[in-house]
Amino acid sequence: MKILIVALLATFAITVHLANVKEEITAAEYIENLNKELARRTNIETEASWAYACNINDENERKKNEIAAETAKFQKEAAIDLKKLNWQTYKSEDLRRQFRMLSKLGYAALSDTDYAEYLEVMSAMESNFAKVRVCDYKDRTKCDLSLDPEIEEILTTCRNPEELKYYWCEFYDKAGTAVRPLFEKYVEFNSKAAKFNNFTSGAEMWLDEYEDATIEQQLEDIFEQLRPLYQQIHGYVRHRLRQFYGNDAVPENGPIPMHLLGNMWAQQWSGIADIVSPFPDKPLIDVTNEMVAQGYTPLKMFQMGDEFFQSMNLTKLPQAFWDKSILVKPDDGRDLVCHASAWDFYVVDDVRIKQCTRVTMDQLFTVHHELGHIQYFLQYQHLPFVYRTGANPGFHEAVGDVLSLSVSTPKHLELIGLLKNYKRDDEAHINQLFLAALDKIVFLPFAFTMDKYRWALFRGQVDKKNWNCAFWKLREEYSGIEPPVVRSETDFDAPAKYHVSTDVEYLRYLVSFIIQFQFYKSACIKAGQYEPNNPELPLDNCDIYGSFEAGQAFKNMLSLGASKPWPDALEAFNGERTMSGSAIAEYFEPLRVWLEAENKKNNVPIGWTKSDKCV
Fold first, then answer.
1. pTM of the model
2. Is the pLDDT of residue 17 over 60?
3. Is there a catalytic annotation at residue 429?
4. Catalytic residue among 499, 531, 549, 598
């Protein structure tokens, strides 16, 4: 009897095993077909989103929202089918990964009615941001100034505090305060969607994309590692601004009034480099005038970016890119989102950029950044739909910035004939590093607060009656800046940042600004352009142009898409598996040493007192 029972159990086990194997084979076929259908539907949805972003009107908005709702409904139905399969037990790790990723619905998990309203809310906020127009400070009858390019150019060139304050207030009131009721609805939908996706809040839903439960703490630790350098930069800039604007305009120990920092959100301060540069007698690297003199056009800038990637044996831009992209701001009067963006349409070689490109040095770097996204799209376009994204959201942002770091070096600018008669002595070196720090280091606390603020709202940690002041408290705590005028709860300022108005998580940019230096250092070593402790080959003057070895490392990483957890993708590039602030600290080490000595010599206060600009 015992032998018979054992035999029956063995037969049953074999039958169950065969059934599981059969189900897994069927599931593999199902997931393959589902990926193809999702790619097809996402292509249609992306075309509609592109049409709307390139021409904001009611009809394009209606079509975009209608198609997005159809796609969401399909995704929800597919997710119900996925639950019928016991995919957690499949032997194939790849199959389990695809099922797990496709099981995440995001906002598509909302009811049809709620999802339709969510789309209307998001469209309204995006439309409001794109349509903000401000009257001219000197001619109040001229009321057609948009953020990009008119107001942004004023912020970087104007040195009249009252005029800067005027534009700041006008923009924040129209881009932020005007959408508070919409933003409150958006937070409600975010919380509902998170719970439908089995997350405790929208914060956890966003953080899940990083596949690491310790990601928040990792970033806090990295930020603490870099905070002393930021504080030295902050103290130095505040001191120089007091010298320029006077002691009454800038406090000695307090937060810096943000309208004086050359950027609407004080996220990067390179716009005021001309008045805070350590060695003003040494010309800062700015090849804008030379670009204009040489007849540069937006088209030429993108052709040069394409050639940079090709020089590393990476993929040439397909003809569809040139045929379908918008590279200059249309002059036909339509409203469009000018914020530079790269688009993947989920069919072979259909990749595009929408950018209101101007012939400036900064825009040249932006071109390379956006083309980094495009190169990522092209390298993983052979993968199933579910894997056609970055290893984590930050990877996508980092790739193009590595190219931008290389393009911005004196070595590369000289190579392409834009920088002439440049002498890189110690003072010019500090100027160059300081200029880079005004973008790269200054950005870190800003990027962190954009999501820390929204996490707090998603988690219900801030009472709605304190939402605006909570935002400014974080900005002051991490960045040491404050608004130019007193703000209150009758104002609402966070949505005056495009990514906040359009539900784009911002942690990707913080992660990007950290790991891009890891990528850059490794690529420079592979290219033979950097040797630690060798003054002839410093990290901050490394140009990876023409390096097949660096290009191959990019291919190894980019071609994985999201098919592996991000530590695997990082390891494929440089052998490391963890994020670290060491490479960025190494890059800026000469500047840190100089700033500490300079601030000490001038008795410059480090740190800041609390702000009183929100009540």
1. 0.90
2. no
3. no
4. 499
